[in-house]
Amino acid sequence: MTATRFFSDNAAAVHPAVMEAIAAANQVDTAYDGDALSVSLDDAFSQLFETRCEVVWVSSGTAANSIILAHFARPWQGIFCHEEAHIEVDECGAPTFYSGGAKLMPLPGRGAKIDAEALGRRLAAIRKDVHQVQPAAISITNATEYGLAWRRDEIAQIGEIARAAGLKLHMDGARFANSVAFLGCAPADVTWRAGVDALSFGFTKNGAMLAEALVFFGGCGGEGVRELKKRGGHLLSKGRFVAAQIRAMLTDDLWLANARAANAGAAALAAACGERLLYPVEANELFLRLSADEATRLRSAGYDFYDWGEGAARLVVSWDQDAAAVAPLADAIAHL
Amino acid sequence: MTATRFFSDNAAAVHPAVMEAIAAANQVDTAYDGDALSVSLDDAFSQLFETRCEVVWVSSGTAANSIILAHFARPWQGIFCHEEAHIEVDECGAPTFYSGGAKLMPLPGRGAKIDAEALGRRLAAIRKDVHQVQPAAISITNATEYGLAWRRDEIAQIGEIARAAGLKLHMDGARFANSVAFLGCAPADVTWRAGVDALSFGFTKNGAMLAEALVFFGGCGGEGVRELKKRGGHLLSKGRFVAAQIRAMLTDDLWLANARAANAGAAALAAACGERLLYPVEANELFLRLSADEATRLRSAGYDFYDWGEGAARLVVSWDQDAAAVAPLADAIAHL
Amino acid sequence: MTATRFFSDNAAAVHPAVMEAIAAANQVDTAYDGDALSVSLDDAFSQLFETRCEVVWVSSGTAANSIILAHFARPWQGIFCHEEAHIEVDECGAPTFYSGGAKLMPLPGRGAKIDAEALGRRLAAIRKDVHQVQPAAISITNATEYGLAWRRDEIAQIGEIARAAGLKLHMDGARFANSVAFLGCAPADVTWRAGVDALSFGFTKNGAMLAEALVFFGGCGGEGVRELKKRGGHLLSKGRFVAAQIRAMLTDDLWLANARAANAGAAALAAACGERLLYPVEANELFLRLSADEATRLRSAGYDFYDWGEGAARLVVSWDQDAAAVAPLADAIAHL
Amino acid sequence: MTATRFFSDNAAAVHPAVMEAIAAANQVDTAYDGDALSVSLDDAFSQLFETRCEVVWVSSGTAANSIILAHFARPWQGIFCHEEAHIEVDECGAPTFYSGGAKLMPLPGRGAKIDAEALGRRLAAIRKDVHQVQPAAISITNATEYGLAWRRDEIAQIGEIARAAGLKLHMDGARFANSVAFLGCAPADVTWRAGVDALSFGFTKNGAMLAEALVFFGGCGGEGVRELKKRGGHLLSKGRFVAAQIRAMLTDDLWLANARAANAGAAALAAACGERLLYPVEANELFLRLSADEATRLRSAGYDFYDWGEGAARLVVSWDQDAAAVAPLADAIAHL
Span D76-83, mean pLDDT? Predict the structure, then answer.
């Protein structure tokens, strides 16, 4: 089945090491987030990111993004994001809900990367008065919704604009691992060193069961974050089972290994797609031209994926689908 | 460790059958709640409750309560509850958050059971104008925060008041299993047959890892429920792992067996407490008189529990602590 | 001073008849909105609109728009509007605040009129699932933010899309009077007969002091509207003074006379602007090309107005500025 | 009619000096709150309160209270108030709405004065964890909902508790003038000198048309206040007409003269009530024992007032009802 499923990395299995960590956590017995696993996260991420981090686990990416953004924006403020950002398009308004009303302010940009110039123009056009919503934060997605990895200097450019305007910079890292794996950089390079204040570090799509980490840099977490989490019903009473997943993903850089596997699968597919590709394939998603007839033929052959508007399709490769696993589909596409 | 831990059933282990179901779910691969396990819940609960149910899984009791209450109350309306109800005291305002502002309207009553007369008086005292918050729902907890089981006729009395006043009746069933196990009744008897419109059916405290079911009776679920869940970040992308836990708990009435075990443990402890008991022990919680000195002595002996104001303590027995497991503590209390 | 002030019709004086009505209301003595003046509004507007109306007064246009939209959209739903709509650009997020989180979904269109085709495309592109915000309403502004009057058939086209998609249609009529005065139509023609469900009928810019009417057609007001108003702090305790203003504006069609005067002033100015005009002048606003140097010269001559981006300006003519009153400015522009 | 109307000071007429100020403001022409009258409020109140104040006008007491409390409490925090406080009982949940969800935490106390000991106990009982709502502010009403004037030392006692616990202290001064008039103290004595951080200074009940002032002491206004006001639809476009009322009320201490007149009327009535009084009459409200039969007889004689539960009534004397004006009712009560 892994060979034929390409519609979402949410559909992937949980990695065995994560399952084992969950089983092992069944011995630990403190409620909520007071257990040793939960408490260990600050240190674990601080090491990974080479700086002091405050870390909070949640069980969904929507919760991760929403809590961070609600922490950064007051109800009457705004949050810049790409017009095709997940938070704008696919979270049913969750960031606005959690923040008590903050406004998402969508911006254009190729491949779901916010265009820095457009951001600058938009910022300049906002009157500094009480009638217009004043921005408090910028959110970028890395890898983007089109599978592109933000380069360090691109992030730094946005980070500089954020700093100059007094805005917080959030990174939705649902596929952060895939981006880092592609770039081969240190996690710090594309986060706090480039001006990122907080990261939604996603693990669920990359081999965990239900585990995401809110990672705050520079001490910008603090009061409000845990209240937002509790109030949102996300302080699970047996939280050790979430923390255990995250620890398993960090152990021996499983997060990176899984992302590399998925990326490799995507690269193998990309090679077969050639001119069909709408965007370079950098992470584990492919967007390609595909006629309705071609889509039908692939589906008849057992491959499952999403249409992406007319004449296009999205394929997502999961951590459990390496180059070998995607070979049949690559072949099928090459012979369309 | 199970022998010494009595502070919360949230600290209990996950039942092996649930762990197995989670492992088995690692083969299923549809995202969100479109998988076969999630889809099967309506039927499974409909059979258990002997009526058509709409069922939605979430991963925390706070989310379960909040989504149901937000579904029942508009932002400007109110929700009656006991002044010591979990939703009033221990959820950081989550029902108000989810509902966009609904007011919890606390009422007195012995053992955390809403006093029906007090409810009637309070209802009568509300002017039917736009200045006063008008109630939309009543929430009761079963078993109560003091471990008491609502009897069918007690619920029906509240249910009748609700019906007459046009209010929805919600039951917070974080320990619903323990109450049903104590009463030996059909689940239907203490829910829809007694006027309950929706139940937060808790499994996490009773052997699951993170799984609660919103159960709507009489077709009162519908539009809004899934939006509230998604918007709250509770539509987990690998939801099959939550649904799997619930299915495991329903299989061969594991929920009932676990509750019986916990109740039996509590009963064994209760026998040792004698005159110390502040409330009859019906479910798996005990509230007892305990001086600071006595508390210290028990803790020195390795027993962990919560103080409950001055001179009192709360003990909670979990599904994995039967009469044999609690014997040492029973003995220790008897010899204080 | 009226001769030199062109930056906003909010700066205009209150019409003497309104001042008299306020003085007269000082004899009436019932609190909130139970007074005879408030109660009389339903009938007064029902006559004006030739259909049964439910009418609620408020003291600001932002409150009027927000309460109507919050009545139409649940927190998780969306509201289509023009990307330059007042509710999107100039109300600090008030409709989102009042609705508990509803998302404004901006659309393009010439002169701040929503483009019907763009609306249709956007509607079609929304997946009918719980991840995407589903729309509940459309809001149009008449006259638009660029001073254009929506024609009956244009509104009906939007109304038909709304009806087909199950959306409510709201009209922000901060300058409704100016639009009706320009068109010379019946108020009914450009509201309920064209599919409008509720109108924010503005009086403040048109000679009142602080008075706007929420007008609901087809019985779509009802429960929630008065609660939203009270909860927003808009149920003024001496509401008779607001209702009095509205009654004065309706008496002998003062609203229409004032709007005609303002429109006539704008038309006289428009004649002097010739090729400078960016949009046809239909109501009481003019948008014209004006270099920074020209703007400086006009301001040096004592004229006050807003810049509108680079090289353009906005002039607004008020009810107390007829053709004669604007003659000096017309002359000054002609001689730039 | 003034002789027979005793149900609410909201029903009173507007004082002639206020009407004149409104008429005079019809010459001023800047929009929103940029006009000279609005801008002058900071200085005017700073002089009155003998300290630097930040002042914002609104048109209703509910808005005043809600904006201040929303400024002081984050959505997940709580606000202590008396269980019969106007904000708890009569504002349809507005403070919760404005704050995005803050919880009102009601306390007992004689005559609607929060009992300091009860406050202390409640504070001590709140666990400092994320499960329980943590308080951010205390709100007291002066004069209270039972017409009692808080003494300086009583306020200071609450103020001290607030300071020690890091809470802001808000005073709902819908009838602040009546309290100050009764006490004969400096306004500063019962506000900032006693620990009050912000005051809702009411003018509407005391001779204005629709005007209340948010008065912030110690620089605790600032960012957020004006955004909350705008977002709530309370930044009226012709705000000069509200500011004008406030300036008129401050001129020659009209606020104090009016309050003295109302208090004198109430005192005259009180003398006739004797043993019937449920509370001392300090401001302009009387609460008295009155049988249903007696109430009927008074109403038959043309007097209008509210029942207050069974066997009791509330009478309110307005600024335009001095001792002479209330004489007939005093006589009628004496002869019941």
Answer: 98
Do residues C65 and C90 touch, judged by C-beta distance below 8 A? no
Nearest C-alpha in D relative to C61? D233
Q: How close is the nearest chain C Cα to the Cα of D215, in Å?
A: 18
* Cα–Cα distance, B93 to B66 (Å, whole number): 9
**Is C101 within 8 Å of A96 when comparing Cβ atoms?**
yes
**With an 8 Å Cβ cutoff, is A314 touching chain C?**
no
pLDDT computed for residue A2 by the predictor: 57
- Average pLDDT over all residues of chain C: 96
- Residue whose pair of structure tokens reads 């001129």 in the numeric block: D251
For the segment B165-170, the average pLDDT, to the nearest whole number, is 98
Closest-CA residue of chain A to D231: A76
- Map residue A305 onto helix, strand or coil: coil
For C74-95, what is each residue's pLDDT tens digit?
Answer: 999 999 999 999 999 999 999 9
What is the pLDDT at residue B28? 63
Q: Which chain D residues are Cβ-neighbours of A235 within 8 angstroms?
A: 130-131
At a CB cut-off of 8 Å and minimum separation 6, what does B106 contact?
A: B81, B82, B83, B85, B88
Nearest to A318 by CA among A253, A258, A262: A262
Residue C93 contacts A where some CB pair is shorter than 8 Å: yes
Kindly state the average pLDDT of the residues D269-287.
Answer: 96
Helix (H) or strand (E) holding B232: none
The reported pLDDT for the residue numbered C28 is 63
> What DSSP line would sit under D230-295, residue for residue?
HHTT-S-TTTHHHHHHHHHHHGGGHHHHHHHHHHHHHHHHHHHHGGGBSS---SSEEEEE--HHHH
The conformation of residue B309, written as its DSSP 8-state character, comes to S
| Contact residues for D161 (Cβ-Cβ < 8 A; gap 6+) | D116, D119, D120, D123, D138, D167
Is the CB of residue C291 less than 8 Å from the CB of residue C266?
Answer: no
Give the pLDDT confidence of D207-236 residue by residue, as tens digits: 999 999 999 999 999 899 999 999 999 999
The residue assigned the tokens 């269980």 is D83
Model confidence at D198, pLDDT cuts 50, 70, 90, reads very high
ipTM: 0.96
Question: What letter does residue B4 receive in the DSSP assignment?
Answer: T
Q: Which residues, 6+ apart, have CB-to-CB distance to B308 below 8 Å? A: B287, B314
Residue A215 three-state SS: strand
Q: Whole-number mean pLDDT of chain A?
A: 96
> What is the spatial distance between Cα C323 and Cα C267, in angstroms, rounded to a whole number?
8
Average confidence (pLDDT) over D258-280: 96
Amino acid at D125: A
Q: Does C235 touch chain B (CB under 8 A)?
A: yes
Interface of B with C in 56-75 (CB under 8 A): 74-75
Supply angle C-alpha B212, B215, B221, rounded to 5: 125
pLDDT at B3: 59
Two structure tokens written together for A242: 């979430």
Q: Does D87 touch chain C (CB under 8 A)?
A: no
Has residue C29 got a pLDDT over 90? no
pLDDT tens-digit readout, B24-64: 999 767 889 999 999 999 999 999 999 999 999 999 999 99
Amino acid C291: pLDDT: 97
Q: Which residue type, as a one-letter code, is found at position B203?
A: F
Q: β-strand B312-316 against B306-307: which pairing, if any?
A: antiparallel
Nearest to D300 by CA among D272, D324, D332, D259: D332
Q: Distance from first CA to last CA of chain B, Å, rounded?
A: 21
What is the per-residue pLDDT for C104?
98
For residue A92, the surrounding DSSP H or E stretch is none
Residues A43, A69 contacting (CB under 8 angstroms): no
Q: What contacts C110, CB < 8 A, 6 or more positions away?
A: none
Q: For residue A15, report the phi and psi dihedrals to the nearest 5 degrees.
A: -65, 140
Best CA proximity match to B9, nearest among B149, B176, B150, B170: B176
